[in-house]
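pasting for ref
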Amino acid sequence: MAYSTRLKQISLITIATVVFAAAPSVKTMAQAPEPVQIENEQAAPVAARDPEGHWTPQVLFEAELLPLPEPTESFSSITENIEETNSNEPSVIDNGAYTEDSGVEPDMEDMLFSEARPPVVNEDSQPEAAGTAGAYFSSSRLVPTSARVQYPYRVHGKLFFSKPGGGNFICSGTVIKPRLILTAGHCVHRGSGGSGGFYNRFLFVPAYHNGQAPYQAWNWRWAVTTGSWAGSNGNVPNRADFAIIEVADRRFGNQMRKIGEVTGWAGYRTNALFPNHTKKIGYPGNHDRGEIMHQVDSQSHQRAAQNTVLYGSDMRGGSSGGGWVENFGVKAQGQQGARFNSPNRVVGVTSYGYVNQGPKVQGSSILNNEFIQILNMACAHRAGNC
């Protein structure tokens, strides 16, 4: 692989962390089960792309988009008799950071595989303004697609992983700290079996595009998911369908980099899904076969069961784990902030939805104290993670 060797002084514009309150004490979460975690025994502190040699070009090409989890209950069942949520609790807020000039040029020659996927022929994947739920949205691939190598798009990417016993799959994820990737719990763990329920061989590719890895592919070192997901038996809606993956540093030219030093990272805000509006980013298989970063913009539509909120969206399998971002973008000169003044905070991740042509909605768990719990574990796991 050819990597750019032009290096400049890193200039990292970092907005200081602001915590409006300590991690909220949420009545419904007081008895939340403990998180589960797993260490990658194959990873060195500075790992190559794939030390096991599993992710060959053919295996990467043949990886399947993980199907979007679908509730076993009807739409009306998950949107009626909703329990009190924690959305009125104070938010815990942390702002992101972006690399104004990281010294790393995107390498458009770095290809995971060179074979082109066949075009999609799927009449029911056409974007519409709303489904039967009346949840309006706009849906588009990036315009231009080269925006993927600009902040804040480049903090999002494609997540490859393997299921023990067979099968390689794809989800989406977001860089939220110098070494940490946020995704869905169901992209990391099957929802049962405790620490034995983890998937493995996680490989994250920021700004992925048609097999291209412009900022390299990053091997995992450690992963954690919430107790609520690990004991869920894989059922959605779930009150804490989150997971965090720590990735190993990579070499660019003659210097080592953390992923956040290369791409920047998003902030977060807890208890902020309702009311709100977000940009949802992922790699859905029903649009461009999941080969091109896709975006959906919509506002909060309806509270749903198990601490979740529904938004209008037409994304499906492969979009799981993608970040839902408030105040997406970079401010213009003279632009004044609204009530929440900092851009690019993740407030949710894609957890579930309906695959049929009907509702056209996706749901996310509200970032809650279980999210803060696994984030604190991830930050403490290795010096320099956060």
